[in-house]
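Record type: monomer structure entry
Structure origin: computed from sequence
Chain ID: A
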Amino acid sequence: MSTAKSVRGKVAVVTGAGSGIGRALALDLANRGASIAIADVHEQRLADVSDELTALGVNVYTEALDVRDNDAWKQFANNVFEHFGVVHQLYNNAGIAGNHPFSREDDGSFERIIDIIMWGVVRGTRAFLPHLVASGDGHVVNISSLNGLLGYSGLTAYCTSKYAVRGFTEALRVEMLTEKRPVRVTVVHPGGVRTNISADAVEASKEAGNWTPEKDRRAKAYEAKYLKMLPAEAAKTIVDGVVKGKGRILVGRDTRMIDLLVRLLPGRYPFLVASVQRKEAQ
């Protein structure tokens, strides 16, 4: 497969586009000349981003979407194809966060995270893959995480889902290469990006009635220490990598350092991470 040289003139689909990396991806792609289809479960956020894209003069299609709904995915894919007549790129970005030790996390919470992050990627890829193949120049871009490279206490469901996204994406890439399908496949591992996903998790925890002053302190400390990259910078790194035809994109210095750590010390890194987490909890 030859590497892509530009996204200009391509039709790109972005999920979780109402905020954070998804919004930044949609705007970056639009500014490079792509036509955009955006989806998000938060309708007002989605409408705001749609207005931003329309102001740029790009062709945009907008649809509210719950990535847990397989039938909705199929309808969304059909609607996007009917609107544009072709689909070139799919950015599976929608996700949520979770911050519960496995020993104290209920099945419903764990399954919800898996359903949105992992199954959302699988459902989206299945719905759009025929259109991507038919375009003759398709590209699937699945957003994993730094936590698709490294395990972390309190993020068991999140890590499980992000590792699954990584495995699914890498296997799909081999499949497309083996079958010589005209579809590139890329897995993305962002590090600490300043998005709404952490704030949304906090709000969900408050609504569930299990928020405490100590959790608030730790959440604020975590955000200040680790969530430093702006979404626009992350999006630029991702789209630059897509344009270069990369199969694996590491976003941020923190992710590159973690990737190196895990490669050098695969058996030792859990002890190092546990030591750091114990200190942060003090």
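Annotation 1: Residues 107-135 form the longest helix (29 residues).
Annotation 2: The two ends are 51 Å apart (CA to CA).
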